[in-house]
Amino acid sequence: MIFLFLLLFVFAFLAGLFDLPEVYVGIVFGLFILTYLYLALYPILFGKKVDKIIRALKKFKNPVYKFLYYMIQDEDSTAEKYLKKIRSPQRAYICKIMWLSKQDRFTEAMEVIPYIKEGKYKWYLTAGLALELDDFASYKENKQRIKDDMLLFYLEVEELAKNGELKGAIEMLNKKPPSLRGMKLLTTVQQKKDLEKKLNNNL
Fold this sequence. Notes:
Layout: H1 2-18, H2 22-46, H3 50-59, H4 63-72, H5 76-83, H6 89-102, H7 106-110, H8 120-132, H9 136-145, H10 149-162, H11 166-175, H12 182-202
């Protein structure tokens, strides 16, 4: 990343020295910005190593990524500070549900659901919370509306865990990571860690 900035500096110096047309300068700066964004976002979108994905989350100033980073680190109070800085109402509502659910405050989390727009994420969150609250009718109703394979996979894992089949749920997660990248990989690994904690607490 430092090399990119150095290259840009050299180009800017040469552009001024040789008085290059503005259109060429604009193209190079545009390519630089696109390359920078690609390299910065690559771990989050396509990363194969969890530690690099987590480091990328920490580097970003975006409050959503900061919130996720501190949630992963189990620093709920710090995560809450960034939760309050999220400008997008929809993202803030979803993150609030995550934050409340992590503390097993499922009833409070369910109260946030009406503020989320209709769609797969609302159905997924509603199904997950309904499962935790033993509302199996609502769970099945919302699960049936989801067509996203990954979201259905996560619900099936949680359903196994809810039924006391923690080892089976962890085994399902173990089989999935080789085909995953970026945030999907991180989500799967974190879900596995949470279930392993529950399993160890039950021993």
